[in-house]
User: Fold these one by one.
Assistant:
Number 1:
Amino acid sequence: MDSHFIRNYNTNVLTWTEAFLNYDKSIHNNKDIKFNYPGFFVSHEGHEIEIVKPILKDLNCNIAHLYFNITTKAETFGKHKDSMDVYFWQCQGATKWIIEDKDEVILNPGDLIFIPKNIHHTVIPLSPRLGVSMSNE
């Protein structure tokens, strides 16, 4: 299956406050979190946020991670591939996705992209951004 995206998939997006509260909860519960200096954060408990639950159900996923950059200078994961199919729901800000070094997609709040497993992609924040990555693994 090829990657694809849907404009305005769901514009009832996650807020910065909800993301920060989830990140804080993850820290207090000693759950796995990641961060890269300066300003790139990942919280692995996005599936516990109420607004995310219907999205997970709609996409037939059970795991959600929050990715946010508070500055465009922050390092992300760079070019990489995932070992599972991934949906990414852009909630705040904008990102440029480069798929297999050839296709480029700009995601804005409410947009959704699907990236099949083992497909190389690079995510570049175009502004401070927040999004939810969802999968079954």
Note: The chain has one domain: 4-124.
Number 2:
Amino acid sequence: MFEVKYKTQYIDINLLKVHPENPRLIKDVPFQKLCESIKENPEYFETRPIICDINYVIWAGNQRYRAGKEIGLIKVPAVILDLPEKKLREIMVRDNVQNGEWDFDLLSSHFEIPELEMFGVDMASFGVFEEKETVNHQMVECPKCKNVFGTKGNFKKNTPLSPTEPSL
């Protein structure tokens, strides 16, 4: 049975310290997307709190911390762990590893491409996209599978959107 030993608490952001050997960095547009994500959906931040040691050094969530500072948060969700350094280092790496892969067909049947990009999904991982203009619609074509994607999540093999479909 899984036993919860640690509890998320809100900590003054100024007490926290960036880990000097943090192996992950988010810059530019992806960093701005992270900031927007935290502003627009603070519940997500609560589900992925910062993990720090008893000295308030951040082992997981350095970029979430930076984003919190950037958007002016005073307190951030954090879990304080009193663990050996080896275990903390493992947590640091596990927090930054992205496992698995997307089922693009399933994902695209529920979301529009601009939404996915806003959520931070790397559309390049599905192939390099070229924008195509039709009379009233913006289209995106995947060069790998030749699927044409409309602005409203229509994913049809080389078929443009219907003329009644709204475009962005």
Note: Residues 132-136, 151-168 have pLDDT under 50 and may be disordered.
Number 3:
Amino acid sequence: MDENLSPKQIKQMINMLAAMLPKEEESEAPEPQSEFQNSVIKSKHIDRKTKRVNKFEKMAEFTMHKEDVEFDKRVAKQPPVPRTRNFNAVKVRCRVCGKEESVNPGLIDSIDRYKCNKCSTMAG
């Protein structure tokens, strides 16, 4: 197609396109909705009218916890056990800032490698 159109050709194209447009009387009518909009509207109405079936209620897993009544009774009778383990605190010195603390020996690998909480959270 030639890129340079004459003004006469441009006017002809405009007239052809204008003829394809709906007339002003027709354009005042409400625009038709797309198929997607119609399906969304229909699905909303269907959900309100029909009750959805919960298929999980028919599965064996729905009643599994109800069969554990004996286990639940045994567990409910046993209260939590209080912590009774004692420990001898170990005095350690922070290798970064030199602060001395008493800590549980289970929290440290070796006494000479200890870092206090403040130095552990510092960047670097």
Note: The mean pLDDT is 77.
Number 4:
Amino acid sequence: MICPACDHDNIAGVDQCDNCGTDLAGLDVPLTGFVEDDPVLNRPVGDLPLKDALVLPLEATVADALALMRERREGCVFVQDGERRLIGVLTERDVCTRVAARGRDPKKTTVERVMTPGPLKLFPDDPLAWALHRMGVEGHRHLPVIDDGKLTGFLSVRGVLQAFLDA
């Protein structure tokens, strides 16, 4: 299976790229019910109004992340390392299940300890149908869009709904 992020040729059925760590689980699941000439579903993700990504470094605390998410009214923050590579995402669900439910102090817990590592990535040329498929298969509500190796924004479920309403 060829990794969509780095083009590494992985063994068929592997869940994670051996080269870059990109999540490959479910990539071989066929799209069903796809109408090939649907102008909305074929629209490239890069043509949609993407949201600006909230970004924090690994060392940021969960309290920092929550304050930023509350201020900007978003459900996630993306985590980058010192080289500005996307390495994780911290969602509201992560905070509930990995911080609050375990009694961790958000002011002392870093996002690195509780984030979801290696988030699934979209690219500007990916069709909306592919993004919807990935959201459905993986259960994600926010997917980062990477262009030239850089985080350019993200697609949310709300953004997908808006694309259909605008069509």
Note: Residues 1-30 form one domain.
